[in-house]
Design brief:
about 1200 residues, mainly beta, Jelly Rolls, eight-stranded antiparallel beta sheet, 15 helices, 80 strands, globular, cell adhesion, Contactin associated protein family member 4, disulfide bond
């Protein structure tokens, strides 16, 4: 239970306070511990307890005895068992019940290490079945001498196992519904173990109460000496009390001081302890006659005995390991003259102290568990702090210590102890660590190890991965392999897929059936079934499909005398099955139940009588290829083919990957127009673990984002002030608040991300990338968050302090609330929210412009020299000798004069007083002409590499003057490395930057304006008149090498030539091919930085960088070369196969087939011949 049962008493002498326990409890004894007294009155208490009659049948087993019950064979059911009992014990191991059969089946309930194990073996009931072993574990620390209830219910394949309030449910597979068991069952032990018992076991030592098997009172039958029950060994029908009294060391300040003897030559001390802590003082005793002492400590789960004396080497003994496992461990310490020994759980370790001729004498006081305050004058030392745990069976010099007399103050001394009970608790039961996190604990808390789970946080609740490719894209990530966690902090785990970041983010999910598969010799009585296994579970796929805006899958069916539908009765002969596990007979399009193929929808089947090509039933290859896009039926999980049993009948199929784009939940939003407006949803259930995340943007200074109330519990997230976001909550321990303060304002009308989490360990709040704030949960306080009102979003139940602005992608425990759907029927709240570019516009790079979309945004790269989803992909080209690209501004004027294009500003009458030029290049030739801009008035700009390798920029803005020359001769620029040039001219001043590290400002004397720009030339120029000699020489040679991202203001000539989106005034002469300047940049540091700048923006691999980026560049180059070689070989093979087919057709003088049939057969046979040559890893890169 989540609460500690504490009750407030009366405030005066007359009033009566009543408490009704819910749920009711069964107990023989009640202990009341006063926590505090009324400060205004005297100490006193009167208590009355009302209860009900309780019938109890008890049997006491001594560890060697047991009960054997023999069934009435007529009433025996092989598929049903109901067993209930209560037990208590101080032993951690023992068999509670066992039943087995002659064929090896058995059912066993075993106490092992203080936990209950239910073992059910259904192994040899049928010789052909695979053995099934069910191992269910429940409970912890059940050897605490308290009553524990057990209920086992087995009905066929269903098993319910309950221990106290904890329950496990199991649903078996296969032949489990039948257990071949014998006609007797034993309780407390296994009288004669059969071959099925292969595990170590002990008899149970303790008490059983109200033991029932299928409604039969076993203990009552034993008391009546019924012949159905045989008592083996010493069995009594009353429960004996344990002989030991435990003591609990509650804190690091706890200690137990016991007097010792000064006269005995041999001193011994024994005790048992249990704890979760790795370190603490177990025993200290001061040496007599000489200074020094003996320390027995727990260090890192091991027992360490240390005997020390100032000025001499200490004697250390280490024994045991993993002693902080919560189990009872026995310790025996013996000191006799100059000999020491310590035994842990019966294993003895001894040593001779190096104290010289002196004998070891102990005496005085023995301090167990800790040391008193130094003010008491004790010399006790506790280097690792006090012990927190339990001890029992303490004896000194073979004399058992009576702890009850210590409690009464007649023997020894103590502080902060709880005597006569062991207060240890298992803080890992129930296990609050989610998603497979490993729970470890100390005396006062637990810790979750989230390594390799894909989650983080105090309870491994928060996924470290994004929920979709769309979310990764809007973090600025490039295409690559990513882990996706579609339900966030929900129960589904992450899985690996490929994200193709285009204008939209495509999600690509592969399966095992991407190869072309041929099918023969099938009929309706013996069909072929192809099963597709995906890289994700069906639940994970369904969550991904739910988030996506659109999904599709390409299914190709090749056929040769293989029909999809029977001509006789119209029954399907081949079909496919989707995730709904229903038969689907349509083979293309978004409309289900059409029973048509793509050709039938488009009206171009080879036989107009049918809706599918294959139904024409021709003795030649054809195909029905369809793009399935009805999302509720995807993905395809099976394909069934049953018409390939006739002569010359054959079929083949191929299924493409599941493709999805978009994330409709990522952009789901609502706008709140007034402070009184809100959206309401059902109560949020996050009792033990709750997380809430959302985006918001606003111009208001304050407002409540979200609120949910209970009777006393509540949660609330609000903008407290322009710079403060606050998360407040109460789970019964009083209200708590966590606030994050920002150095900048949150009400800047940009998107901000908020994430809060509350669990049994702590509460946390994070806003954007600001440091998160946490609030630890109070120790042993209430942990259940109990809410009962509606969930209010954007406001409160009082309609005050509402939020003005937009909320987007609101998620609670991984589930996204549909704000838009609710907003459509709510006044003063609008579905959707525009203005994404204010936050995400910075992702559009290199001059790309952010454009708003109904759901999100896109980067418009029209006037950028780059392409890609964020205008970050350089367009590069390799120029062979004598080639050129010429962009005509005057032709462009006529093409765009009726548009609003920026390029239209470059026309014959326009005078340019400023321009910006950017490009990158790599070459080894000198001289070279990199860029040339000419005007109708014999003005020009040339960027060349001179004979000596220097870079020269020549501006001639006046036809009557010599050009201004800017010369960069600090290095040879024709060195085969990638170099970057940027020129910005403002009137008569030009700013030039080379390789981002060399900058120069030049004042031009030839003029301030560029009149009537005519051409921009990359590469060789044919006209050399009216230009200076150096430019003419470079222009005659042209350019051989790579040019990249060339841009003159808003004009990108390479992009216009290689990626034309509309008619462009570009002329290409010679061989200019798209290439990558960066890929061949060698070891140049600058080029490497530019190559990986986009990936660097994504962060490290832990920050969700695609796994593909972790592959070294050498491996990528080698893989690329291998792929190219394989591709060439495959092409040659395909051509050879096609030629061979044509020869056979010619020799046989077969009639000419239709173009459709010929194409289908060629494609099929080519794929059949080459499919085995391409492995799965290579094909993943051909999306």
């Amino acid at each position: 239970k989540d609460c500690v049962w504490g009750f407030s008493g009366n405030a005066n002498a007359d009033s009566v306070v009543y408490y009704r326990l819910q749920p009711s409890i069964k107990a023989r004894f009640l202990r009341f511990i006063p926590l505090e007294w009324n400060p205004k009155g005297r100490i006193g208490m009167r208590m009355e307890v009302f209860g009900c009659a309780y019938r109890s049948e008890v049997v006491d087993l001594d560890g060697k005895s047991s009960l054997l019950y023999r069934f009435d064979q007529k009433s025996l059911s092989p598929v049903k068992d109901i067993i209930s009992l209560k037990f208590k014990t101080v032993r951690s191991d023992g068999i509670l019940l066992h039943r087995e059969g002659p064929s090896g089946d058995h059912i066993t309930l075993q106490l092992r290490g203080g936990k209950l194990f239910l073992l059910i073996n259904s192994g040899e009931a049928k010789l052909t079945s695979i053995p099934v072993l069910v191992n269910l574990t429940l409970g912890s620390l059940l050897d605490d001498q308290h009553w524990h209830s057990v209920l086992i219910q087995r009905l066929g394949k269903q098993v319910n196992f309950t221990v106290d309030e904890h329950r496990r449910h199991f649903h078996a597979q296969g032949e489990f519904n039948y257990l071949d068991l014998g006609y007797e069952i034993s309780f407390g032990g296994i009288p004669a173990p059969g071959k099925s018992v292969s595990f170590p076991h002990k008899n149970f030592h303790g008490c059983l109460e109200n033991l029932y098997y299928n409604g039969v009172d076993i203990i009552d039958l034993a008391k009546q000496q019924s012949p159905q029950v045989i008592a083996l060994g010493n069995v009594s029908f009353s429960c004996s009390q344990p002989q030991s009294t435990p003591v609990t060391f509650l804190s690091s300040r706890s200690y137990l001081a016991l007097p010792g003897s000064f006269e005995e030559d041999e001193v011994s001390a024994t005790f048992q302890f249990r704890t979760w802590n790795k370190a603490g003082l177990l025993l200290f005793s001061e040496l007599q006659l000489v200074s020094g002492g003996l320390l027995l400590i727990l260090n890192d789960g091991k027992l360490k005995l240390n005997l020390y004396q100032p000025g001499k080497l200490p004697t250390d003994i280490t024994a045991g390991a993993g002693l902080n496992d919560g189990q009872w461990h026995s310790v025996s310490l013996s000191v006799k003259r100059s000999h020491l020994s310590v035994a842990v759980d019966g294993h003895v370790t001894s040593a001779v102290p190096s104290l010289g001729p002196e004998q070891v004498h102990l005496g005085g006081t023995y301090y167990f568990g800790g040391c008193p305050d130094i003010s008491f004058g004790s010399k006790c030392k506790s280097p690792l702090g006090g012990f927190q745990g339990c001890m029992r069976r303490i004896s000194i010099s073979d004399k058992v210590v009576d702890l009850l007399s210590v409690q009464q103050g007649t023997f020894g001394n103590f502080s902060d102890l709880q005597i006569d009970s062991c207060g240890i608790s298992d803080r890992c039961l129930p296990n609050y660590c989610e998603h497979g996190g490993e729970c470890s604990q100390s005396w006062s808390s637990f810790h979750c190890n989230c390594s390799n789970t894909g989650y983080r946080g105090a309870t491994c609740h928060n996924s470290i991965y994004e929920q979709s490719c769309e979310a990764y894209k809007h973090r600025g990530n490039a295409s690559g392999f990513y882990y996706i966690d579609a339900d966030g902090s929900g129960p589904l785990g992450p899985f690996l897929l490929y994200c193709n970041m285009t204008e939209t983010a495509w999600t690509i999910i592969q399966h095992n059936g991407s190869d072309l598969t041929r099918v023969r010799n099938t009929n309706p009585g013996n069909p072929y079934t192809g099963v597709f296994q995906y890289v994700a579970s069906m639940e994970q796929l369904q969550a991904t499909l739910t988030r996506a805006e659109h999904c599709e899958q390409d299914l190709t069916y090749y056929c040769k005398k293989s029909r999809l539908v029977s001509k006789e009765d119209g029954a399907p002969l081949s079909w496919w099955i989707g995730r709904t596990n229903e038969t689907q007979t349509y083979w293309g399009g978004p409309l289900p139940n059409s029973q048509k193929c793509t050709c039938g929808l488009e009206g171009n089947c080879i036989d107009s009588q049918y809706y599918c090509n294959c139904d024409a039933d021709r003795n030649e290859w054809t195909n029905d290829t369809g793009l399935l896009s009805y999302k509720e039926h995807l993905p395809v999980t099976k394909i069934v083919i049953s018409d390939t049993g006739r002569p010359h009948s054959e079929a083949a199929y191929k299924l493409g990957p599941l493709l999805c784009w978009g994330d409709k939940l990522f952009w789901n939003s609502a706008s709140f127009d007034t402070e009184a407006s809100y959206l309401h949803f059902p109560t949020f259930h996050g009792e033990l673990s709750a997380d809430v995340s959302f985006f918001f943007k606003t111009t208001a200074s304050s407002g409540v984002f979200l609120e949910n109330l209970g009777i006393t519990d509540f949660i609330r997230i609000e903008l407290r002030s322009p710079t403060v976001v606050t998360f407040s909550f109460d789970v019964g321990n009083g209200p708590f608040e966590i606030s994050v303060q920002s150095p900048t304002h949150f009400n800047d009308n940009q998107w901000h991300h908020v994430r809060v989490e509350r669990n049994v360990k702590e509460a946390s709040l994070q806003v954007d990338q600001l440091p998160p704030k946490t609030q630890p949960a109070p120790a042993d306080g209430h942990v259940l968050l109990q809410l009962n009102s509606q969930l209010f979003v954007g406001g409160t139940a009082t309609r005050q302090r509402g939020f003005l602005g937009c909320i987007r992608a609101l998620q609670l425990n991984g589930m996204t609330l549909d704000l838009e759907e609710r907003a459509q029927v709510t006044p003063e709240v609008q579905p959707g929210c525009r203005g994404h570019c204010s936050s995400y516009g910075k992702l559009c790079r290199n001059g790309g412009k952010c454009r708003e979309r109904p759901s999100g945004f896109l980067c418009d790269c029209t006037f950028s020299a780059y392409t890609g989803p964020f205008c970050s992909n350089e367009i590069s080209a390799y120029f062979e000798s004598g080639s050129s690209v010429i962009y005509s501004f005057q032709d462009n004027y006529f093409l765009s004069k009726n548009s609003s294009s920026h390029a239209a500003s470059f026309h014959g009458d326009m005078k340019l007083s400023r321009e910006t030029i950017k490009f990158s290049f790599r070459t080894t030739r000198t001289p070279s002409l990199l860029l040339f801009v000419s005007s109708s008035y014999k003005e020009y700009l040339s960027v060349i590499i001179a004979k000596n390798g220097s870079l020269q920029i020549r501006y001639k803005l006046n036809r009557y003057q010599e050009p201004d020359v800017v010369n960069f001769d600090f290095k040879n620029m024709a060195d085969g490395q990638l170099h970057h040039v940027e020129i910005n001219r403002e009137g008569g001043v030009a700013f030039v930057e080379i390789d981002e590290d060399t900058r120069r400002q030049v004042h031009l004397s030839s003029g301030r304006e560029f009149s009537a720009v005519k051409f921009l030339v990359l590469g060789r120029i044919s006209e050399h008149s009216d230009i200076d000699q150096e430019t003419a020489l470079a222009g005659a040679q042209g350019f051989t090498g790579c040019l990249s991202a060339v841009q003159l203001s808003h004009v990108a000539p390479l992009k216009a030539a290689l990626h034309p989106s509309h008619p462009a005034p570009v002329t290409v002469t010679g061989h200019v091919t798209e290439s990558s300047c960066v890929a061949q940049a060698g070891t140049d540091a600058t080029s490497r930085e530019r190559t990986h700048s986009f990936a660097d923006h994504s962060g490290t691999i832990d920050d969700k960088e695609p796994l593909a980026n972790a592959i070294k560049s050498d491996s990528a180059v080698i893989g690329g070369l291998i792929a190219v070689v394989i591709f060439i070989l495959l092409c040659i093979t395909a051509i050879a196969v096609r030629i061979y087919q044509q020869k056979r057709l010619y020799k046989r003088n077969e009639a000419k087939r239709s173009e459709n049939v010929d194409s289908a057969e060629a494609v099929l046979k080519s794929e059949l011949n080459i499919q085995n040559a391409v492995n799965e890893n290579q094909k993943e890169y051909f999306f």
